[in-house]
User: Fold these one by one.
Assistant:
Number 1:
Amino acid sequence: MDYRVEELASQAGIRVDTVRYYQGKGLLPAPRREGRVAWYGDAHLERLTRIRELRDQGLTLSLIGRVFSQESDDPGGSLVEALVEEHLTGRSYTKAELAAQAGVPEAFVTAAQTAGLIEPLLLEAEERFSEADLSMARAGLELLEAGFPMQELLRLAVRHASHVQETTEAAIDLFDGHVRRDAAGEERDPADVTQQFRTLLPVLTRLVAQHFQRTLVSRALGKVADQGSSEELRDALAATESGLEVSVSWR
């Protein structure tokens, strides 16, 4: 069945400008044009329904775009399901609940959200934060209690987040080119790719965390040595390097 944009929006229960916004974001295919008239079909309506379902699950438009991209390569949806599961696992919190659970002012959560360090999900038109956001907020509180100024801590976190985004994009490209496809560029079995994703995600996370830890401790050891710090501090840093263990598990 064919629809004009107003008819499509009505069928989907959304506004016309929302249809055009999704199209501009690349989430909705372009319509068929006959002269100056744009015609949409049932596939467009199905896509809008799918967008609503994913939004109701709490996915951002950016993540929805990734889901659609992956679905086109994995018609069975196994890897998509794994990605969504990883993103949504665990209890969710309102901003007030997150602040209370973490023991931080709500303004701290707002500042972290504004800086792009945490991104709430939208569940039934309400912002909800994840278990990962709670862990980050608690870690932030520990740093504040240790004497880090909040504004400088946030600026440092934003710089780190920017580098992490660049690195993860490169990691995704590597996964796509060398795990999801074989040496000849052919798609591997979706079930095998999904299992690889589940196996490699915690391994990669552990690797990054351990590298950051080792680099931080090594640089700190070098700095305290240059500054002639006490033997006790150097011993403590060395013990930290050998005694800490990063543990990551797939829930």
Note: The beta strands are 32-34, 37-39, 121-123, 126-128.
Number 2:
Amino acid sequence: MTTIHLKRSGTKLSFRALSIRFCINCLSIKNSSSFKLILLLLMCLYGTSQLTYANNDWLESYNIEWKSPSKNSGESMPCGGGDIGLNVWVENGDVLMYLARSGTFDELNGFPKLGRIRIHLTPNPFEEGSSFSQKLNLEKGCVEINGDRFGTSASIIVWVDVHRPVIHLDISSSDKSEAVITYENWRQNSQELTNAEKDACRSWLGAPQKAILDKDNVSFVADNNAILFYHQNRNVNTSFDLVVEQQGLDSVKNKLFNPLHNLVFGGLVKGRNMVADSLTKGIYASTPFWGWKLKSRVPDTRHTAEIVLYTAAVDSVYKWEDGLAKTLMDANLNNKHARRQTLDWWEDFWDRSYIRINEDNDDVTAKPWQVGRNYQVFRYQLGCNAYGDYPTKFNGGLFTFDPEYVETDRKQTPDFRRWGGGSFTAQNQRLVYWPMLKSGDFELMKS
């Protein structure tokens, strides 16, 4: 017997299906009218007879929890909100995360990560041999990481403000610890993309011109108390120019919308009582990177940090910095209530509609229960781009990672994905958005 609980349009229904076999047999009925009639009768019979009401604590059994650290970014958890997505994982004692945001297209029409964050604590409760857990808390929209080693315990909560483009890192420990937060970037030199890399910005496949990607800008700012990073699109030899020329549209070029023109995207990393420490460099997967470190002034039992993001089409970096400063000011003014507002948003999101299968029998090996949990996790990832300027891409959304952990011979950077960049293919994209009509996630469809 398989128990299914549904909620749509403000009505909570629960019905007990006769069996999965019955449903499968229904699918074999050739007469679609008969099939619809059977389903309608089944829904009416069981839906009206067993009306139930539930709180969102039912989500607890669907949370993903790991009891050991990850091997690499291929074993990362999704985390996000508003229009921001993070890949979060713990590797070799460090907490790492990739940053991504809707609408950050570079001059080649690629869709790059905004960088990588690394958190290191001393003493380190996440090193090998520690008691460890990492949980995706669906109800609260956050990732919770806990470790205990030789009696020293620590907790790191990663969450994103749904209403403002701010990533929050909340660190607490049983003993005073030193915290180092590193911003890592692998685009410190302008470079020509190879043919193997051009699938990340498909307009350049077979193009006669070279695909040159400009470098990012990263520096310590605010009296060495923060890290500023951004990418500024050049306005010549872009994907827009390439396609306009290829399509013979030069005569009307100035009338066409150019989404890449003057686009600047990036942000600021700052921490409470943290100052610039040093530069570092290394290689992650097959990609060399540079790192900018912020270090706590003194050891403490509590550390907090924020990554504030900003994207705008402006004709100078100074105007972009002004916009970032206003975003930072707004975040500071609303910091006291941001967590509560974000929790309220996720509560409304989960209460809007749901499909729950065998929720009282969370046998992780059972296929019906796995289907129910996968539905919650997938819907959560879509909810992380509720307010994006652009739709969630069908092939990974905001949560792609180093491609060599999918195909070992692909040594491209974390920015790579097949069918990448601003390429949206209708036949695949509709599979992501069409079901939102059923789930009632209308605000997610606006982009």
Note: The CA atoms of residues 214 and 275 lie 29 Å apart.
